[in-house]
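B., you asked whether I could sanity-check this one before it goes into the benchmark set. Here's the sequence:
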Amino acid sequence: MDWNYYDTFITVAADCPVETGTKPPDKKDGKTKPGIEFELITNHPYGYTQKELLYEVHIRHKNIPEAQLAERGKQIRDEFYMKPQPCLRASMLPKKYGWGIHFNAKGQIAIVPVESPDYRRFVEGAYGNVKLLAAMRNKRR
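And here's what the prediction gave me:
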């Protein structure tokens, strides 16, 4: 199963509550999943595919120690990938925090703030053969 999107842009949800790309806040006891996603993608634009990002967010969010990853890394990875995982259309970055998500031809990810000219160009089709998908809504109709 291929977990990645290619040449795709996920637009912010129709009911996204913000008008500008906003950094997700941390919790008192650490980072949230959207905070980890934001940090990884902004520190490494086009450095992760969706599959790689979801796994990296999982191990960081669960605080799995390096020693445990060294000892049981393959088992942890296999167990993670055996379970269905929501795609980035369900991420809070495009649903709540105002970030579009671009997947390049290799499936690697970067985020684009909703208020930016780049975001507008993606939506208007200025970047050629990029498929547009909307993020999932926050609430059912």
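One thing to flag: Strands lie at 8-11, 99-103, 109-113, 131-134. Otherwise nothing jumped out at me.
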